């Protein structure tokens, strides 16, 4: 499945389906539990009514059991024998015994056919001969009790008048005045619970697929609309790749969401890439132009020397060769920097490096004044060769533009080391102070190439400083010339 829209729609549908199934199951369980509890409560009420009658010693055949309300009742004694059942009860299960035929024991509460209570007295409390008991103190009969604890509940079935259904049974114990313990099993129908649960389940089974289709469709449409700008960006990028025209830009939607930021970032990347390609093209063109002059001069001198040996300018040929070698070295270093070459992490003393570089400059037209405090340790981490190249380039630039003085100083500052190179020349105009760090840039276009160089020294110096975690800036010097400051982080 390669489409983002399809994956989003499928994912949303699966999540919603799981959520709805979980919620539906929870609703069904809660609904079933509530309806079952209601049925249990109804069964308990009926069971306690019958148990209350048994506690009052009502005969078994005179018990009122709500037969008209579809509440089957079964009464058992301590031995599990059925002593009374509700009318039309034909079968029962879930109450401990499936017997539905009463088999009364001679316990209290069982009436004889002649109306006597089994103790030699008739129903009105007189002896068989019609006379009162001389020892009778005319007190009221005894009273049993009903168990007030939580009844036992169970599920089962019962067949009443030929109809079989599921019931919730409640079992309540009662004790007669004679001390006989009886258990009343009363049932309440579960038809309402089953009907309600079935209705809800059916509605869910019908509504769930419809709802999932709606969720999938809405997610598909919303995702399609949201990703429409992405397709526009893709088409434009494909067109840019095919045409190699980096001046084109992808469309930016008016929204402020992630896609709009993606489009802006893509355009920024295209702008940076266009600038990089243009800079690379200019670099190649400028390098070719710079290399052409010393090569042409060297070729001319060699051709003249071959035809007229006495006219060969050996010093000029050597100078052109040296200049060609330096230019090739600069171009190679720039190529390595552009390729992302990381400088070494050797710890070195920048003050000692400055002293070493100045001591090797024996042919400078203006002596360099060095100011390095003896008490300071100016250690930095980096490439010794590249940092020496930076200091050399700064001194070359100062020598080229100075009138009478060139100075270099080293000091500690803000967790780093600063190397400052100043001259008393014409200085750099404020609006040109960033431009001079571009490659092949020379502010004085009228000077000769021998005097001005190729315009790569300051560009190399800034690139090396940046790759060492530092910076190279230019400002006006107190003497009226230029002041270049190289800041590098300390080795610590």
Q: Which percent bin holds the helix content?
A: 40-55%
Write down the Rg: 54 Å
The share of residues in extended strands comes to 15-25%
Distance between the termini: 54 Å
DSSP summary, beta strand count: 14
Largest sheet: 7 strands, antiparallel
Point out poorly predicted stretches. Answer: 107-141, 445-451
Q: Determine the number of helices (DSSP H or I, runs of at least 4 residues).
A: 8
Mean of residue pLDDT?
Answer: 83
SSE order, one letter for each helix or strand: HEEEEEEEHHHEHEEHEEHHEE
Structure class: alpha+beta
Shape label: rod-shaped
Give the topology:
Layout: H1 4-55, E1 73-76, E2 82-85, E3 89-93, E4 145-146, E5 152-160, E6 163-175, E7 181-189, H2 191-243, H3 258-307, H4 314-338, E8 346-349, H5 350-359, E9 368-371, E10 379-382, H6 384-401, E11 406-413, E12 416-423, H7 449-452, H8 457-467, E13 471-476, E14 482-489
Parallel strand pairs: 9-11
Antiparallel strand pairs: 1-2, 1-7, 3-5, 4-6, 5-6, 6-7, 8-10, 11-12, 12-14, 13-14
Please tell me about this protein's structure.
- The chain has 492 residues and is an alpha+beta fold.
- It is built from eight helices and 14 strands.
- It has helices at residues 4-55, 191-243, 258-307, 314-338, 350-359, 384-401, 449-452, 457-467; strands at residues 73-76, 82-85, 89-93, 145-146, 152-160, 163-175, 181-189, 346-349, 368-371, 379-382, 406-413, 416-423, 471-476, 482-489.
- Strands 1, 2, 3, 4, 5, 6 and 7 form a seven-stranded antiparallel sheet that branches. A five-stranded mixed sheet has the order 9-11-12-14-13.
- Strand 13 (471-476) and strand 14 (482-489) form a beta hairpin.
- It is rod-shaped.
- The relative contact order is 0.07.
């Amino acid at each position: 499945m390669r489409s983002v829209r399809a994956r989003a729609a499928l994912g949303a549908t699966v999540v919603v389906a799981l959520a709805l199934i979980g919620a539906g199951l929870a609703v069904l369980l809660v609904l079933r539990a509530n309806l079952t509890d209601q049925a249990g409560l109804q069964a308990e009420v009926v069971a306690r009514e019958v148990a209350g009658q048994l506690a009052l010693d009502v005969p078994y055949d005179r018990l009122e059991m709500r037969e008209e309300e579809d509440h089957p009742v079964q009464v058992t004694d301590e031995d599990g024998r059925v002593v009374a059942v509700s009318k039309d009860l034909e079968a029962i299960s879930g109450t401990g015994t499936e017997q539905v035929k009463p088999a009364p024991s001679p316990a209290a509460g069982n009436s004889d056919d002649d109306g006597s209570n089994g103790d030699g007295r008739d129903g009105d409390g007189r002896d068989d001969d019609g006379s009162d008991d001389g020892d009778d103190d005319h007190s009221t009969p005894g009273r049993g009790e009903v168990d007030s604890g939580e009844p036992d509940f169970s599920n089962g079935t019962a067949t009443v008048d030929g109809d079989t259904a599921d019931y919730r049974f409640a079992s309540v114990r009662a004790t007669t005045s004679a001390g006989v313990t009886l258990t009343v099993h009363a049932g309440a129908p579960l038809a309402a619970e089953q009907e309600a649960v079935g209705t809800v389940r059916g509605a869910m089974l019908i509504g769930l697929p419809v709802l999932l289709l709606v969720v999938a469709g809405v997610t598909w449409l919303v995702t399609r609309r949201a990703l429409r700008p992405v397709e526009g960006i893709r088409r434009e990028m494909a067109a840019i790749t095919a045409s190699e025209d980096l001046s084109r830009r992808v469309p930016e939607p008016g929204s402020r969401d992630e896609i709009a930021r993606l489009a802006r970032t893509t355009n920024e990347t295209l702008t940076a890439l266009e600038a990089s390609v243009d800079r690379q093209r200019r670099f190649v063109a400028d390098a070719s132009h710079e290399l052409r002059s010393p090569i042409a001069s060297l070729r001319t001198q060699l051709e003249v020397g071959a035809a007229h040996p006495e006219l060969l300018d050996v010093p000029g040929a050597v100078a052109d060769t040296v200049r060609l070698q330096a230019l090739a070295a600069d171009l190679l270093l720039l190529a390595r920097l552009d390729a992302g070459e990381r400088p070494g992490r050797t710890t070195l003393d920048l003050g000692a490096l400055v002293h070493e570089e100045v001591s090797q400059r024996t042919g400078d037209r203006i002596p360099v004044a060095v100011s390095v405090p003896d008490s300071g340790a100016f250690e930095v981490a980096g490439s010794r060769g590249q940092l020496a190249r930076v200091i050399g380039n700064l001194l070359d630039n100062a020598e080229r533009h100075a009138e009478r003085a060139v100075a270099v100083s080293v000091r500690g500052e803000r967790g780093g080391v600063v190397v400052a190179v100043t001259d008393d020349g014409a200085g750099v105009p404020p609006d040109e102070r960033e431009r001079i760090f571009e490659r092949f840039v020379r502010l004085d276009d009228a000077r000769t190439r021998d005097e001005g160089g190729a315009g790569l020294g300051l560009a190399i110096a800034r690139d090396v400083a940046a790759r060492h975690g530092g910076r190279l800036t230019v400002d006006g010097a107190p003497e009226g010339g230029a002041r270049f400051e190289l800041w590098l982080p300390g080795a610590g």
